[in-house]
Amino acid sequence: MIRNTIKIWEPGEYEYELSFGFEPTVDGYLHDEASDNLRPCLLVVPGGAYRFVSPSEAEPVARVFYELGYNVFVLTYTTDVTMTVPLLLRPLQDISRAMRLLRRRSNEFSIDAGKIAICGFSAGGHLSASLAVHHADVTDDNPAYAGISNRPDAAILSYPVITTGPYTHVDSASALTGAPVDRQTNKLDLEQSTDEQRRWLEYMSLEKQVTNKTPPCFVWHTAPDVDVPVENAYSFASACHAQGINCALHIFSKGPHGMSVANDVWANIEYTDTYSVAQHVAMAEAVRDGRLSVMPEIQGFLDMTMMSRQDRKELQVFTNQA
Q1: Can you give the three-state secondary structure of the chain, one letter per residue?
Q2: Where are the domains of the chain?
Q3: CATH topology of domain 2-271
Q4: pLDDT (tens digit per residue) in 76-104
């Protein structure tokens, strides 16, 4: 296996207030064989409520699809754990550039430029679906990428956040748009939202944005999901059906949110690569250096990023038991 990490933005192109030196990347899991043997490619997009990029939906997923014959990349995109600097189009620009980069360098990576799918989980499912429905909106100012298609050839949406309506995942919607959250009801406070925030909420409610240019989709969810209601999957599949898009919908009767690929590697927390939390590491170091001030609960969350792998595993086991 060939492993590599590639920054998706050229020097000087990337800006985000809370980056602290972090830059989005794709991490590759590639078969080491002759370059004329082109393989299908999967771009994995982990979730994390747009507040972090979950390692449990990164390496474990990549290795499963690698074993199925794909050349795989995992996207580490921009997030905001503090929920103070609305992300807006920043993550969508990241995934759009990643798709263009993979197509531009497809021969180098031995991948078929016409067979590049995306596979997103939870908030990463929202980001993947955003590219599926909004790909035509995202231009690229770099001439090297401007003429390259960013449309995925297919999308796998795993327990995805889709809507910003009544069944939304409020932290994801708020991190994206800046819309306030009423913590007593744990719902978006639309009355206190600005007109601009409401416009962003409409744009990010993806069941309303499906067109006949949306690529084929495979959507799966679990019925008991209490974090991202299964209605998110229903609404997107229904919208695809209305537009004549090939879409398969699978609802499992059991299973919590965040199951990833639900294998032993995921269940036993045996994955070792934690590159997906690079922005958290940068922010945690900024807090320690006094360059960033955050609320205590946010600092605790960032401190978890700096734990050893064994400490993280013990904490996860304790959390699961609780």
Answers
A1: CEEEEEECCCCCCCCCCCCCCCCCEEEEEECCCCCCCCEEEEEEECCCCCCCCCHHHCHHHHHHHHHCCCEEEEEECCCCCCCCCCCCCHHHHHHHHHHHHHHHCCCCCCEEEEEEEEEEECHHHHHHHHHHHHHHHCCCCCHHHHCCCCCCCEEEEECCCCCCCCCCCHHHHHHHHCCCEECCCCEECCCCCCHHHHHHHHHCCHHHCCCCCCCCEEEEEECCCCCCCCHHHHHHHHHHHHCCCCEEEEEECCCCCCCCCCCHHHHCCCCCCCHHHHHHHHHHHHHHCCCCCCCHHHHHHHHHHCCCHHHHHHHHHHHHHC
A2: 2-271
A3: Rossmann fold (3.40.50)
A4: 999 999 999 999 999 999 999 999 999 99
